[in-house]
Amino acid sequence: MYLEIDHVEKVFPPRGGAKEVKALDGICIEINKGELVTMLGPSGCGKTTTLRLIAGFEFPTGGNILLDGKLINNVPTHKRDMSMVFQSYAIFPHLNVYENIAYGLNVQKISKDDQKRRINQVLEMVHLEGFETRAPNQLSGGQQQRVALARALVMEPKVLLMDEPLSNLDTKLREKMRFEIRQLQRELGFTCVYVTHDQLEAMVLSDKVVVMNAGKIEQIGAPRDIYRYPKTKFVADFIGRANFLNGIIRNVSQNELEIEVEGKTIFLFDPRYVDFNAGEKVDVVVRPEMVHVRREEGKFEAKIIQAAYLGESIEYVLDLNGKQITAHETDPARLDIIPEKSNVKVSFIENCLHVLKA
Ligand SMILES: Nc1ncnc2c1ncn2[C@@H]1O[C@H](COP(=O)(O)OP(=O)(O)O)[C@@H](O)[C@H]1O
Ligand SMILES: [Mg+2]
């Protein structure tokens, strides 16, 4: 393990009539060398605070931060070998592209020859060759963000920290930059902690996603694990979309759960559910894409409240025994819309469902 956040707590003291804020409540994260880890969560959950503690702009009020086995709690920021990229880019408006990237190298008194070599290298990485003498106001948002990235990378940091670096870009450019950052990170193998509130961005970029809520960690896992096996209702709802249905475990055998849901029995085959007991109440997590809506056949009876044609898919809101559930149909062979108010049959792709202890 390379970077370790060990039971870190951050309390901001009361100030000007405002109460104290416990921004981080004993969080633990382990980051390996060369990994890209994203911190994901709603606004105010503590993502930026975590990054600022790692960077040394703030210090923890409890717990420890270790880099390469050494305690760095009180090491000042300029001695941590970390670079940070911000949402606002924070490039210097009065310096051109080359000078912006050279800034940190000058502070470190790196020779002009070495500077030139390293700057040319990063300019190539971020596809800004030929832009050396441009002023920041002659660059697009995406180019400015590439300058910020180049300026961070040229320092060859032990850890690159990025705080919502793509939030100011439009959707298309954001999607492109996601892949560029991911590719660059894979090629160069730097260690990166990346903050975002955008779950798709987190899924695309990450080796590991840390899902945070109100100063605590809800779950840490690979993108597929947090989507497929969320540990809490919060994670199930924040990563993708989820319908929750009440269920009762009726039978547990070796690898199989038998669950009663809305008067019917569904089956889940997965050894990871062995610690459930018969009679236990559960929340069944049903992703919209796991719901099939048919005119003729299906396990449950339902009524269509809303039907919307989205081109590549159809979205239904259904009434199932008085509960609203959302279905997302992508089967192109069935892309005729069943009209609103129709009575339909609904079934689930049962083996893709997930259960949480209620
Ligand atoms: N310097 C500060 N003083 C007091 N409270 C702060 C300070 N910085 C952040 N906070 C509070 O800590 C919590 C977490 O903030 P932050 O880490 O910025 O969240 P995020 O980046 O996830 O949106 C929020 O409630 C915020 O208001
Ligand atoms: Mg923030």
TrEMBL record:
InterPro entries: AAA+_ATPase, ABC_SmlMolc_Importer, ABC_transporter-like_ATP-bd, ABC_transporter-like_CS, Mo/tungstate-bd_C_term_dom, P-loop_NTPase, Transp-assoc_OB_typ2. The keyword Nucleotide-binding applies. GO terms for molecular function: ABC-type transporter activity; ATP binding; ATP hydrolysis activity. Gene3D superfamilies: 2.40.50.100, P-loop containing nucleotide triphosphate hydrolases (3.40.50.300). Residues 3-239 form the ABC transporter domain. Pfam families: ABC_tran, TOBE_2. GO terms for cellular component: ATP-binding cassette (ABC) transporter complex. Keywords: ATP-binding, Nucleotide-binding, Transport. It comes from the Bacteria. This is ABC-type Fe3+/spermidine/putrescine transport system, ATPase component. It comes from Flexilinea flocculi. The lineage of its organism: Bacteria, Bacillati, Chloroflexota, Anaerolineae, Anaerolineales.
